[in-house]
Design goal:
By secondary structure, this protein is of the alpha/beta class. The chain has helices at residues 15-29, 60-73, and strands at 3-9, 33-40, 50-54, 78-83. 33% of the residues lie in helices and 30% in strands. A four-stranded parallel beta sheet has the order 3-2-1-4, with helices on both faces. Strand 1, helix 1 (15-29) and strand 2 form a beta-alpha-beta unit. The model has no long low-confidence stretch (mean pLDDT 93).
């Protein structure tokens, strides 16, 4: 069993805090996973393990669609989608 965990992030006043906390919490509470971020309209170099950079900020729904496409192409058996402020 392997789990793909993706989190969609936008620029927000709390983004720096959330992008630091979330991977720490995931690492402390989860086993056998791959974690990545989808950066929606922000600088991908600011985020841990960006797997997709959407240059122009788009709707949350489009970010979710992209996350599902990434999961479908992966070899993961399980998928967890997190909002940026979920930790």
């Amino acid at each position: 069993m392997s789990t793909l965990i993706l989190s969609i992030h936008i620029n927000h006043p709390q983004s720096k805090h959330w992008r630091r906390l979330q991977p720490l919490f995931v690492n402390d509470t989860t086993n056998e996973y791959k974690y990545g971020t989808i950066v929606n309209g922000d600088d991908p170099s600011l985020y841990p393990n960006p797997v997709l950079h959407i240059k122009e900020r788009t709707s949350h729904r489009q970010g979710i669609t992209k996350a599902l496409e990434i999961f479908e192409k992966s070899d993961a058996t399980h998928f967890l989608l997190l909002d940026s402020d979920c930790w």
